[in-house]
């Protein structure tokens, strides 16, 4: 597994060391979360760039009201 150097402010490092949190695990999860967020943003951008599948407009407010009525919400 490659090693990576990251820099954090001294106060943050001191706080992390006092709490004895697993810094490497936390950093790895933060990297995964950032990559997932990027992939999600890319997917949304691609979905918005696609041509519409229909020209029919959907009244989402009326549709949600109908669903709420069916479920008694």
Task: State the gist of this model.
The chain has helices spanning 10-19, 23-49, 60-71. The chain has 73 residues and is mainly α.
Helix and strand topology:
Blueprint: H1 10-19, H2 23-49, H3 60-71
Features:
single chain; 73 residues; mainly alpha; 3 helices; 67% helix; elongated
Number of beta strands:
0
How many domains, as an integer?
1
Q: What low-confidence regions span 5 or more consecutive residues with pLDDT below 50? A: none
Q: What's the helical proportion of residues?
A: 55-70%
**What would the principal axes of the Cα set say about the shape?**
elongated
In percent, how much strand structure appears in the residues?
under 5%
Mean pLDDT: 93
How are helices and strands ordered from N to C?
HHH
SSE class: mainly alpha
End-to-end separation? 51 Å
The total count of helices amounts to 3
**How many whole angstroms does the radius of gyration measure?**
23 Å
Largest sheet: none
């Amino acid at each position: 597994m490659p090693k990576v150097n990251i820099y954090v402010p001294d106060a943050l490092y001191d706080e992390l060391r006092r709490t004895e949190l697993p810094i490497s695990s936390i950093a790895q999860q933060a990297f995964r979360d950032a990559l997932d967020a990027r992939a999600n943003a890319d997917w949304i951008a691609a979905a918005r760039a696609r041509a519409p599948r229909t020209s029919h407009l959907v009244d989402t407010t009326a549709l949600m009201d109908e669903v709420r009525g069916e479920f008694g919400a």
